[in-house]
Amino acid sequence: MNPQAPRQANARTHAQATAHSYLVGLIGSGIGGSLSPAMHEEEGAQLGLHYVYRRLDLEALKLDIAALPDLLTAAERMGYNGLNITYPCKQAVIPLLDELSDDARALGAVNTVLFKDGKRIGHNTDWSGFARAFQRGLPDVSMERVVQLGAGGAGAAVAHAALTMGAKTLTLFDVDAARAASLAEQLQKRFPASKVGAGESLAGSLADATGLIHATPTGMTKLPGLPLPAELLHRDLWVADIVYFPIRTELLQAADALGCRTLSGGGMAVYQAVDAMRIFTGLEPDAERVYGHFQSLLQG
């Protein structure tokens, strides 16, 4: 007997009954402040859909990452169309999936899981979301020498985006030096025209860098603070943060004070959501409308 048969049969029945109704969610830890539910539900309504988005917060549920297999199974059985995946589950979810998109496979990280025809299909919209936000907010900055903090799931995505956008030299730092070295090796193979490596001295690398990308959880409301000594920043740097809650992190405030050009994580949050909605529904969200709604949520 095909072990996937019950899943496939249930998926077909659910799809027939809910052609214009979508139930999706977000799995992560400490996601109570996420604006994804509001963004997805509002744009779903604008598209004429009955669209419900739920948080599955490991912290609030008093669970850890070991609960991820059970949560995916439960969501699947309850008729979810898909899930967004965030810290700390973007890499741990991969062994639990049936298929990966080319981007997700290359990056080794998944932030969007589609349940379709009894299969779990992993995608990555973080890298495309970051790239679109960067091109909107920092369209003409130098990509000559870029330093990135963070080599986890989100870090892999934004590093890929930076190299896709033409970073000539990319130096990675992470609290786990081996993880930074491993990611650098993978990226160097995919982008042979650029120079990618794990850094040894953050101060030395930043001294002549043209840009800084921050891709760790530090600076989030639940993890306040700076991810590096403020004195390492200088006004010739542009600074891009992927954290968006709060929208002006301590890192961005410090960079703004020096006169650096900065980019918040808000644009990435918007564009990755737009790309994820397209995967869940097969419809094209209005990116500018979602961006406008995101801005209103921040002000509210």
Spell out the blueprint of helices and strands:
Elements: H1 5-17, E1 21-28, H2 36-46, E2 50-57, H3 68-77, E3 82-85, E4 99-100, H4 102-107, E5 112-116, E6 119-123, H5 126-137, E7 145-149, H6 153-164, E8 169-173, H7 177-190, E9 195-198, H8 202-207, E10 211-214, E11 238-241, H9 250-258, E12 261-263, H10 266-281, H11 287-299
Parallel strand pairs: 1-2, 1-3, 4-6, 7-8, 7-10, 8-9, 10-11, 11-12
Antiparallel strand pairs: 3-5, 5-6
Helix pairs in contact: 2-10, 2-11, 5-6, 5-10, 10-11
Written overview of the protein:
The strands form two sheets. A six-stranded mixed beta sheet has the order 2-1-3-5-6-4, with helices on both faces. Strands 9-8-7-10-11-12 form a six-stranded parallel beta sheet, with helices on both faces. Helix content is 41%, strand content 19%. It is built from eleven helices and twelve strands. It folds into two domains: 120 residues, Leucine Dehydrogenase, chain A, domain 1 (Rossmann fold, 3-Layer(aba) Sandwich), CATH 3.40.50.10860; 141 residues, Rossmann fold (3-Layer(aba) Sandwich), CATH 3.40.50.720. About 3% of the residues have low confidence. With 300 residues, the protein is α/β, with parallel strands linked by helices. Helix 2 crosses helix 11 and helix 10 crosses helix 11.
